[in-house]
Amino acid sequence: MTLTAFIEGIGLLGPGLTDWPSSQSILSGQQPYQPCKTILPSPVLLPAAERRRSGAIVKLTLATGLEAIAAAGLDAISLPSVFSASGGDGENCHAICEMLASDDRQISPTRFHNSVHNTASGYWSIATGAMTASSVLCAFDASFGAGLLEALTQVVVDNTRIVLLACDTPYPEPLYRVRSIPDAFGIALVLAPERSAKALAKITVSLTDASADRLTDTALESLRLSIPAARGLPLLHTIAMQQDGHVVLDYLDSTRLAMAITLC
Predict the structure, then answer these.
(1) How many domains does the chain have?
(2) Which of helix, strand or coil describes residue 142?
(3) For a designed S-S bond to 215, which of 54, 74, 221, 249 qualifies (C-beta 3.0 to 4.6 A apart)?
(4) By C-alpha distance, which of 217, 221, 211 is closest to 252?
(5) CATH number at residue 139
(6) Closest Cα partner for 123 from 157, 160, 153, 167?
(7) How far apart, in whole angstroms, are the C-alpha atoms of residue 168 and residue 186?
(8) Which among 71, 19, 64, 234 is positioned nearest to 145, based on CA atoms?
(9) What was the pLDDT predicted at 216?
(10) Domain range holding 190?
(11) The dihedral formed by the CA atoms of 20, 23, 27 and 28, expressed in degrees to the nearest 10
(12) Largest CA distance in the chain
């Protein structure tokens, strides 16, 4: 079985990758990749109170999702969404654990409601006004693949556009020792069932037991391996190269995603 959709917009933010337009020359090898800490923009669409309460995962999903939707020439209010992350807000999780390990265990309501896995989806709805369906997934290191399959399934079955938001943020020490995600990283894709004037590429995805593709740039390959959301970088690399191709993305231990990419 295969799933097919058209990519109409891309959002990208991570270490040394500030957005999709400026990152294409890096992913295609025309400019050297220079890792540097991810800078998360302020979520200006949120009301002031929610802006103060929002954590890294909220800022990251808003930045990448809005970039992808703007590139597709669409309005976020009308798009169903799929959120996929290997964890949640690491800083918030750390703060709650610190409080539970202290003598004062009174957790603030803000900390509590930011601890759930669908926090980013809720803030997205507040910021964009979207009241469309939203799916929220977590599949540990397989989260990018799981999110992509879920989004593609909805595109095909419901014959509708979808925005996929795959993001991860780091945990502070001591949690970092057991879940060593080094920095914030996110990819957003607007997927459509039919080709349009905004279509960048057609993707056809199936399951395979072939090995996942690696990036030739050692620093980018290290980024791909170190952050689950970055498992989608070979897909973006192929599109940045401006050529048709076949890519195998990491998914489960014994199953990967085989993808045929045809530029539009």
Answers:
(1) 1
(2) helix
(3) 221
(4) 211
(5) 3.40.47.10
(6) 167
(7) 6
(8) 234
(9) 95
(10) 3-198
(11) 100
(12) 60
Q: Express each pLDDT in 89-144 by its tens digit.
A: 888 888 888 888 888 878 777 777 787 888 999 999 999 999 999 999 999 999 99
Using alpha carbons, select from 17, 88, 100, 97 the residue that is nearest to residue 55: 88
Query: Hey, which residues does 263 pair with through a beta bridge?
Result: 201
Q: For residue range 200-240, what is the model confidence (pLDDT) as tens digits?
A: 999 999 999 999 999 999 999 999 999 999 999 999 999 99
Two structure tokens written together for 254: 């014994």
Concatenated DSSP letters of 26-56: HHTTSS--------PPP-TTS-HHHHHH--H
Cα 26 to Cα 30: distance, rounded to the nearest angstrom: 6
Q: Exposed, middle or buried: residue 84 (CB in 10 Å: 0-12, 13-18, 19+)?
A: buried
Structure tokens at 217: 């740039």
DSSP helix/strand/coil, 130: coil
Alpha helices (H) along the chain? 20-27, 48-53, 56-72, 90-100, 109-113, 119-128, 143-158, 218-226, 233-240
168 domain residue, yes or no: yes
- pTM here is 0.95
> Is 219 among the domain residues?
no
Does the bond joining 35 to the residue before it have cis omega, within 30 degrees of 0?
A: no
Cα separation, 202 vs 194, whole angstroms: 9
Whether residue 89 contacts residue 59, with contact meaning beta carbons closer than 8 Å, is answered with no
